[in-house]
Sequence to fold (406 residues):
Amino acid sequence: MRGFIGAIDIRSSHVSAVVARVNSDDKLEILGKANRMFPVDGKNLYENDERLAAAISDTFYEAKDEAQVEMTDAYISFTTEKSGLMEVKARRDFATGQRVMEQTDAISIVSSGYDYPVPENICVTDVVPRKFAYDDGEDTIFPWGKRTSFIQANIGLQVVDRGFLNKLKSIVSMTQIRAVGYSLSGVATGYAVLTTEEKQDGAIVINIGAAHTDVCVFFDGTPVFCSTIPMGSDDCTKDISSKLNVTYEAADSLRRMYGLASVSLIEDDHMVPISAERDCMLSDIVRIIESRYTRIFEISDTLIAREDFGRSEPDAVVITGLGASTTEGLPVLCDSVMGKQSRNGRILASFGGRVENVGAVGLAEYTFENMEYGKQTLFADFIARDEEPRDEKKKFFFGLFQRKSR
Fold:
């Protein structure tokens, strides 16, 4: 039997889940997918423990039913402004002088990322192996077999506020699902919407949800930056409600019905009804929407400009998320604000599916890509000795690697 992957993505207004399989061609195949939508109304799923637990359970079980697979293990991604991605360097000098680097050397140094000394209120949820360096200075993702006196690894640490993660873990424990690992939703999304070339050459993913916007940057095939802005499409709705003096429900309908990202996209400005007694110009609604999304792109641009990637910023931007899906012309606005080439992002054709499932599909692909890498590096020693790692998350991956390598 091939390895199965369960993935659950928790956003502020919906939960998505997929069950995937590593097929006989060593490709990821989505077997089942589901999502649960919830009205935000100024709040989000994370503020109601019981509702969130039910959403997680119901969504995952629906995906399992469609896949006709019995499993309880799942990898979970989340979104919160109390998270991020930080890069650290780990180095190990060989006491014997120059020797041929082995796989276990790479395994050991990358695994050390889990033990990196972070502040007490922060914990490392996952590590992203990047490039390695050795005597001749060449970077590579496959360093073994090289003769060198040292090995140095760039490691991306996914970090999150300890209190937030502990609360999320307690919510998941209310279900029958066993969480085998946690990851950032912004990181996962990139694996669903970016092409191989975009991930390699550099791209920015902006995932606009209801209450949060994730901003993630990829270079050399891996994420190098991730941050979350506590702002999204629900803020557009609140702005419309406040400035046009209509109910939240009416404002949400107006945003969805007349959602244009820029007044420059209006071909025929006209009066539209906003209540039984009042009308307003279409441009009045669009200006409110444009103002809020402009602010989101400005903050995204500022966050990225603060980072030193060791090269120029990516020129490509991919915009995705449920908030983005209901607003026409966001790439046009993004281009004007950030000065980059933007496009709408949907789940890659090889996976199929809808934008609601983008996080869960990306998480499954992220897990698969790291599994592929892990089979060669992180868990190669466990497989070779037929031993099981003690860490629960590593046990989950180890089981996948064992089944896949048979």
In short: The mean pLDDT is 85.
